[in-house]
Amino acid sequence: MAKLGCPISVCVFVFFHLLQLFSYGVGDVLEVPTFNINQQSLLQYLYLGDIKIDLPALYVFGDSYVDNGNNNFLPHSAVANYLPFGIDFDGKPTGRATNATLAGFQYPPPILSMSEADRKTTRTGVNYASSSSGILSENGRFLKMNVLNFFQQVDLFENATLKDLKSSFSSKESFTKYLSKSVFFIHIASNDLGLTYETATPKYSPDKYAELLVEELSKQLQRLYKLGARKFLVNNASPLGCQPLNINVKNHTTSCVEEVNERISIYNKLLSNSLTKLQSTLSGSKFVVGDLSKIFQDVYASPASYGFKDVNTSCCFDSNGTRIQACAPNAAPCEDRKGRVFFDPFHPSESMHFLWARRLLKDSSVCSPINLIQLMQA
């Protein structure tokens, strides 16, 4: 883990790997910069040099899309701590299930890597995400994996971070202000809506299942609010029916597996309505929906305009020589990674993450009711 090497006015752009990025338009092409680009050059490259934001910290919750190493500390869990993961990050795996992480900035450390001393002094944020986890505790169980579900992640925020960090503040008021200005980023539900739904007992209808997920998610968001959180960015679910895994193992007559995408759509609509309701009832709160589903759909509709040549093929082979499971250790991935939407059968490439973040920052068509810049400035 890199040491904190930038002032907080710069570090605010380290939204895990998300807040490092920006774009003028929706369909333009801007390549991921090189690994060793320095901070000043990166900000100039992304036209971010004159933006002023007072954001003290970023707290990240979720699954493998945002896990940057927590599962490395959990026995019998899903991990991405071996090559080819991280191959474009100076050739070193980071725990993230993709090919790179942009360099030059501090991003929230995984909570399970932190000592008590770290928890008392780290004010720039923490990552609680766990690969293969979800809203429900069932996630990971059918694969006999040990993961942190969303409830447990919030437990860690309350019983580890808050307990230890508050002692470093001079007053209760200053700590309360710090939490209210920080951003809480949640990317969750993909695993619930994927394999967990398909193996669930008893079997739910897509509508009832979506209601269950949104209800449980809402409980934990309200819990975070009671603990002091006020600014929330919550991603909806991406169109899982277009993942390489589902395209390769499920019957379908269109380019994607629409049965899967239909239940994603049901959940996303309920999520948006729920967040609107929460903001109207929780005083001083701001809930923003990151429309990851639309970002993927836009790319599928016009891949070339976003710099992509392959939208539905895994960049790596698994141990069986297929493209339907996690990358085989030390297996060479495809060479055209910049033009791929997916790195493995489940997770986006760094190029796709780059686009995802650029659009959330300023594009109101995928970030509402306000964009991410506005949320951070609020």
Write the layout of secondary structure elements.
Elements (H helix, E strand, L loop, with lengths): L7 H4 L27 H7 L12 E5 L53 H6 L3 E3 L22 H16 L6 H10 L1 E5 L2 H10 L6 H21 L4 E5 L8 H6 L8 H24 L4 E5 L1 H10 L48 H13 L4 E2 L3 H6 L1
Parallel strand pairs: 1-2, 1-3, 3-4, 4-5
Antiparallel strand pairs: 5-6
Helix pairs in contact: 4-7, 7-9
Model description:
Residues 1-27 form the signal peptide. Its main location: secreted. It is found in: Secreted. Belongs to the 'GDSL' lipolytic enzyme family. This is GDSL-motif lipase 7. This protein is α/β, with parallel strands linked by helices. The chain has a single domain (8-377), classed as Rossmann fold, CATH 3.40.50. 35% of the residues lie in helices and 7% in strands. The protein is built from twelve helices and six strands. It has a six-stranded mixed beta sheet. Strand 1 (58-62), helix 3 (116-121) and strand 2 (125-127) form a beta-alpha-beta unit. The protein is globular. The chain starts with 7 loop residues before the first helix and ends with a helix. The model is unreliable at 1-26 (pLDDT under 50).
Short structural summary:
With 378 residues, the chain is an alpha/beta fold.
